[in-house]
Design brief:
Blueprint lengths: L15 H34 L14 E5 L5 H10 L5 E5 L7 H7 L4 H7 E4 L5 H15 L3 E7 L3 H11 L4 E7 L2 H5 L6 H25 L27
Parallel strand pairs: 1-2, 1-4, 2-3, 4-5
Helix pairs in contact: 5-6, 6-8
Amino acid sequence: MISPTDQSPTGMPAAARPRRHRGMVRAAIVVAFALGFLFGAIGFVGFLSQLRSGELKPSSNADGIVVLTGGSSRVSDAMELLANGYGKRLLISGVHPTNGLSDISRTLPDSQRLLACCVDLDRSAVNTRSNAVETRRWAHERGFRSLIVVTSNYHMPRAIVELSHEMPEIELIPFSVIGDKWRDEPWWTSGPTLRLLLSEYAKYLAAEVRVRLADLGLDLRPDGSDQQTEAPPRKPATASAN
């Protein structure tokens, strides 16, 4: 027989209360995970909707062009835009410190004249955020008010977040480079491509949160604090910074 002292005011046995509490906690955790997964999936779909599946020429010319190194054909596509008069000058941001114009010219032999007259190299940037910082410095030094941004389609959303935060007064015109893997097969059928997109989505969310906090005066990652995590390996011409 259960004595009155072993019951709660509602008549529930004292021994049952911890079990009920644990059940409520587990249910709350399951609901939280389910909601997190739902919102994450919706956000991922929104992120994918920003990615272009084909290369479209810029809608207008700009004062300058910036290409963020790290993906195949980014630099060659940017040089083609420069040759076609879409910008007055090109910044290649994220070049390995030991590489110069001569290294790039060996991979782009038809662009030697443009490389000699109209191309600047940024060797300081080691990640997307420092790409944006160096691009801002270059654009301000040149007095540019508009830039065509060249990078891979999956990287473009994060690049625009970082660049627009650093120089909100400059018009940014995206030019997305589409890689061969993206052309050859749907992303959802390729494990490596799916992992790349999920990784980039996480970085994009982190950049959005950091930028919004910075707008509120809370800069949680001062410039350069993440350089070691994305340092570029040495390559013959340009190095991956993103």
